[in-house]
Amino acid sequence: MNVSKITLSILYLFLSCTPVNAQFSFGSYALQHVNIIDVNTNKILFDYTIVINKDKIADIIPSNKYIVNDTVQSIVLKGKFVVPGLIDAHVHFATDPTEERRDHAEKVLKEMLLTGITSVRDMAGDARALSGLSRNALIGDIVAPNIYYSSLMAGSKFFSDPRTIATARGGLSGKMPYMKAVDSISNMQIEVAQAKGTGASGIKMYANLSNREVVKIVEEAKRQNIPVWSHASLQLAKPSEILASGVISVSHANMLIYENDKYQDLINSWGNHQPGGEEKEFWDKEFEKSDFSGLYNLMIKNNVVLDATITVLTLQKNFPKKAWVYEIGKRIIQGAHKAGVLIDAGSDSDQETFVQHEMKLLVSDCGFSPFEAILAATKYSAQSTGILATEGTIEVGKKANLLFLNSNPVENINHIDDIFMVIKNGMFYNKK
Ligand SMILES: [Zn+2]
Questions:
Q1: 161 C-alpha to center of ligand 1: Å?
Q2: Could you read off the pLDDT of 28-45 as tens digits, one per residue?
Q3: Which residues neighbour ligand 1 (ion) by CB within 5 Å?
């Protein structure tokens, strides 16, 4: 046998003999006879070969056109399906980063990577902790997805929130470069420069900001070339104002309700109604009272991705008076999806469940096909984060971030858990 060929059985042997956090990479190798879930053409490309060189995808060709050569090691993966590495567009790993939290974060991040999540977007936390985790993940010091994190801006009112005090430990809440109180007289040039200096990949607008402040932040961020992510409502600035400002994603579908000036009356009247079941008709009728098509159109026109977070909306069902968050939020997601809004997959679930759960909920509750749920957790999560140029699809020149499955996830979204192996930045990982 040609020594440059590593057969599937040897790969199995290698993977099964190595410890849980096993990782290895070859340099150049060809993954032969795989079925590619192509999120660009929305088709399955059967029996293709993906050539990987170091950390990037070097070639993608039909297997019958691939010529085996001695400089590229071959791995036969007949019958396997491959999707782009999954991206969770909404996590929180350093809200209160004590020693214990770092241990916990590392443990969860490892589990995430081994289930096929190759990147995450952290949507507010202590950047001093996140930058360390991010660096360790990037160079392979810890087994973890690539970590992209935010620098948060909000009105001063928000900074009495206990989470912001925990995140600013050792400093002053509202005065940290990664978590700042801003207002209309803030020097945005300096505020944005400091936010960028934390190593953040985006600015997250969180709460208590007016439209005037939103416009100033986004304009300056554009000038300094850092994307802006936002909550879908900022109490003062309305969803439509945020969507017109130049942000690239908005989080939490339920927050679009705040476009309607009558929302407070509506929410009060919804307080005593239970989720779903016998009340389905009630929620259907209430949803009809607001027209969200203008907001959907704004998202489409301005290329804003909706970071819907159905997982965390589902959790609200357990709280009294909060059924509406799920019932109205779910209907907004369904409507946005039907209208053609791009929706990513962000779990925001504090590591209780991963993005695969979000994908399954998009299918079971929000009218997505399994293929559409895969698109959400790959291409659109990458677009939402601002990393589509390097991740989120299986394309020549992009990072070799790939999830190999034993069964077809397009037939059944539960197959997303039928993991064979994961490749992140060209490194192989396998749970067994
Ligand atoms: Zn969040």
A1: 14
A2: 999 999 999 999 999 999
A3: 123, 348
Task: Say how many Å lie between the CA of residue 40 and the centre of ligand 1.
Answer: 28
CA 295 to ligand 1 center in whole angstroms: 21
pLDDT value of residue 100: 64
Per-residue model confidence (pLDDT) at position 27: 76
Biggest CA–CA distance in the chain, Å, is 75
Q: How far is the CA of 76 from the centre of ligand 1 (A)?
A: 41
Amino acid 330 reads K
34 alpha carbon – ligand 1 mean position (Å): 36
Considering only CA atoms, which of 299, 302, 323, 300 is closest in space to residue 313? 323
Separation of CA 65 and ligand 1 centre (Å): 46
Question: In angstroms, rounded to a whole number, what is the distance separating the alpha carbons of residues 79 and 47?
Answer: 8
How many whole angstroms separate alpha carbon 428 and alpha carbon 353?
23
Q: Which domains does the chain have, with CATH numbers?
A: 8-84+394-429 (2.30.40.10), 86-385 (3.20.20.140)
Q: How far is the CA of 66 from the centre of ligand 1 (A)?
A: 45
Instruction: Say how many C-beta atoms besides its own lie within 10 A of residue 351's C-beta.
Output: 17
Q: What is residue 24's predicted lDDT score, i.e. its pLDDT? A: 55
Q: What ranges in 168-279 are assigned the alpha helix state H?
A: 188-197, 211-223, 239-243, 263-270
pTM of the model: 0.93
Distance from the alpha carbon of residue 348 to the mean position of ligand 1, in angstroms? 5
Ligand 1 centroid to residue 148 C-alpha, Å: 14
Q: Are 6 and 49 in contact (CB under 8 A)?
A: no
Structure tokens at 34: 């795989």
Q: For the chain, which ranges sit under pLDDT 70?
A: 1-26, 98-100
Q: How far is the CA of 123 from the centre of ligand 1 (A)?
A: 6
Residue 227 sits at φ, ψ, to 5 deg, of -70, 160
Cα(2)–Cα(5) distance, integer angstroms:
6
C-alpha angle 344/347/352, rounded to 5°? 160
- 231 C-alpha to ligand 1 centroid (Å): 9
Q: Which helix (H) or strand (E) holds 8?
A: helix 8-17
